[in-house]
Prior knowledge:
The protein is mainly alpha-helical. Helices cover 66% and strands 0% of the residues. It has ten helices and no strands.
Amino acid sequence: MKSKSPAHAALALIEWGHSAGHYPPELVEAAVHFAGQPAIDRAGRMSLIAAYGLSTWSTISREEFLAEADLPKSVRDALAADPVVNPESLPVVAPAEMSEDDIAAYRQRGIADLANRAERLRLSVLTGGAAKAQTYREKLAEVERHEAAALNEEEIDPADYPYLSAEVGVHGESIADVATLIRAKHVAWTPVNAAIEGLYFAAKADIADPETDIAAIPARIDAAEAAMMTTLAGLS
């Protein structure tokens, strides 16, 4: 079997850290490094991972890093579109007063505003935070293990399911009840979240399209948000 190159092994480690929601400085630095090497990072994921990782840091730590780092354009663009790094709504400006660089920056701020609105809608259902997101993943993994164990008629040891056990007596009378409730919520939420994601990416593409008049961007964002809200209303 052909072994992986050191670069591809490093990419795999970065992806592993990202899947675990763990973004120490060395991981972010490595992601920034590979983001500047598109021949290695063919999928273009490193700039997104670097930007997301930075968004989980404190504002002071992030600003200190950005003051010293030599960021590739792809990472700068990803940061510009990050709602955590740039939480303010898109300002309405007069197109005639804008240079090409201003227009490009305005589009990026529009994407950030769009992402922020989508995130606010999600947070009306979910609890925010990288640690909480990791908790959701681990809890769902327990549900999947419990389902497999139940299907195989294996004995259920509460010690093997700490997250599910913690909710017994609160969200269900047994581990099985809690697992069923979490699975039902996941099944209901997934298509709604997927639809929100589809609306987000469609609007993002429109905003980024050079053919889209920037004067129309605020209305495009409002329309996407309204469509997302309608989709979210279907959850209840």
